Every structure is written in C-alpha cells, then in structure tokens.
Amino acid sequence: MKWLLDMIRNDDEPNNFRTVNLVSVKTSSRVMAPLLSKLAGHEHLKQLRISDVRLSEGRVFKLIGDIIGQCAQLQSLVLSDCGFTTHQVASIAQALEDNLKLETLNLSYNRIDLKQEAAVAEFLSSMSTFLLHNRSLIHFNFSGM
Predict the structure, then answer these.
(1) How far is it, in rounded angstroms, from Cα 139 to Cα 118?
(2) Which of 15, 49, 61, 69 could form a Cys-Cys staple with 78, CB 3.0–4.6 A?
(3) pLDDT band for position 9 (50/70/90)?
(4) Percentages (nearest 5) of helix, strand, coil residues in the chain
C-alpha cells in the first residue's frame, strides 16, 4: 500500500490508474485516510474496492462520500464489511444518485439495523431514487445486511 500512497502523493506524475483494489488488505482507517483524500476527484478512477476495513469513522466516512460525489467515471463500488451504519449506507445511496455510470454496487455485510425505521426508510428512499436514475447498474449486492 505504501507504493500506492507514494504514487498518489507525487503530483508531478499523472495518475492514470483506474482501479484501486483494497479487498482483504489489513489496515486501519487512519492509514486509509490519506489515500482516500487523494482519490476524491480522481478523474480516471473507475473501480474502488475496499473490504474488511472500518471506514465508518466520521472523517474517513466523509472521504468516501467525497469520492462517490466527485469521481464521475466510477463504474464499480465495493464497500463490503466496512462497518457502515444504516444511516451511513443511506448517505452512500444518496451520494450515488447523480452517478449514471455505476454498474456494480456492493455494500454487503455492513451494519443495517432494521429497528432504526427512519434510517431504513431514508436508505430505501435514496436507493429507489438512485435505481430510477441509473440504468447502467448490473450487479447489486446487499447480502449479509
């Protein structure tokens, strides 16, 4: 992961990579924060895959929202087992409403609490809006919630 951080930090070189795959990378949200902050607005990013890393802390979660909102070419988003709450998953769905290119969305194994009725309603409303606008979504995984 250090090479990736070094490459992103070096602003003199163009960063044309399209995929960031951090599935099963054992690290902390503190280590992820600098990487995520550099990915926001990355014009070439098409795939972001992060799994089994707690990203639910306020600052790190905000960075996820920035990436979703600013990476217009994003086609695949995997945020599996990241410790997101019901409200955070609803916020992710809301941030995706303007993304018309997303083909894969995987938010499996996060902490959806069906007892939080308001948050679940917000999540379902945001997902409905996203699904109505996005005609390119092919893979949709919410298993384990």
Answers:
(1) 26
(2) 49
(3) low
(4) 45, 15, 40
Report the residue count for the chain.
145
Helix or strand holding residue 79 (H, E)? strand 76-80
**pTM for this model (two decimals):** 0.83
The half-sphere exposure of 73 on its side-chain side, counting CA atoms within 13 A, is: 13
Q: Which CATH architecture has domain 2-141?
A: Alpha-Beta Horseshoe (3.80)
Residue with tokens 């790190």: 60
Identify the DSSP state of 114: T
Task: Give the separation between CA 56 and CA 90, rounded to whole angstroms.
Answer: 13
Return d(Cα 8, Cα 14) in angstroms, integer: 9
In this structure, which amino acid lies at residue 105? L
Backbone angles phi, psi at 24, to 5 degrees: 65, 20
Q: For the chain, what are the domain ranges?
A: 2-141
